[in-house]
Amino acid sequence: MRNLPSLYKLGPARAMEILQDPSFIKGVFFRDPFSRLLSCYLDKFSAGTHRANKYSLKIFGDNHLLSFPEFLKKVTAAGAPMNVHWRPQADICQIEELFHLYSFFGNFERLPEHGRAFLTQAGLWKEFGESGWGPGENVSMFHENSAAHQTTA
């Protein structure tokens, strides 16, 4: 599963073919939009990140570090660029139009539990979920992550 392409990388025609094929089990995992936005800011725009000025200049045309309030104003302004890092996930997966094609909806903040449920539903838990991940390839794909994360999400 590590090397499988994401659905959006397959192109619209192939993606729709897969979504409409009943032999595929389709699932989507959503992340809390507020922690996702904060995580984006901390990772791409805050002081101390090597890419802060690069992203600010490339996306907004500003060559200075943005405060979080400035960032929020920029991403919520009318006509603001809709970058994949803050574009609503419902838009990315076209959930309003394609809701009926998905068989599983998971919460990213509950990934160990929901990931196992999804792989179990797909009949893939033993093969892909139970082990085979991590440095020694002996960790569950959806083990609890104890690594430090800026937003704990």
UniProtKB/TrEMBL annotation:
<dbReference type="GO" id="GO:0008146">
    <property type="term" value="F:sulfotransferase activity"/>
</dbReference>
<dbReference type="GO" id="GO:0016051">
    <property type="term" value="P:carbohydrate biosynthetic process"/>
</dbReference>
<dbReference type="InterPro" id="IPR005331">
    <property type="entry name" value="Sulfotransferase"/>
</dbReference>
<keyword id="KW-1133">Transmembrane helix</keyword>
<dbReference type="GO" id="GO:0000139">
    <property type="term" value="C:Golgi membrane"/>
</dbReference>
<keyword id="KW-0812">Transmembrane</keyword>
<dbReference type="Pfam" id="PF03567">
    <property type="entry name" value="Sulfotransfer_2"/>
</dbReference>
<keyword id="KW-0472">Membrane</keyword>
<comment type="similarity">
    <text>Belongs to the sulfotransferase 2 family.</text>
</comment>
<keyword id="KW-0333">Golgi apparatus</keyword>
<keyword id="KW-0808">Transferase</keyword>
<keyword id="KW-0325">Glycoprotein</keyword>
<protein>
    <recommendedName>
        <fullName>Carbohydrate sulfotransferase</fullName>
    </recommendedName>
</protein>
<dbReference type="InterPro" id="IPR018011">
    <property type="entry name" value="Carb_sulfotrans_8-10"/>
</dbReference>
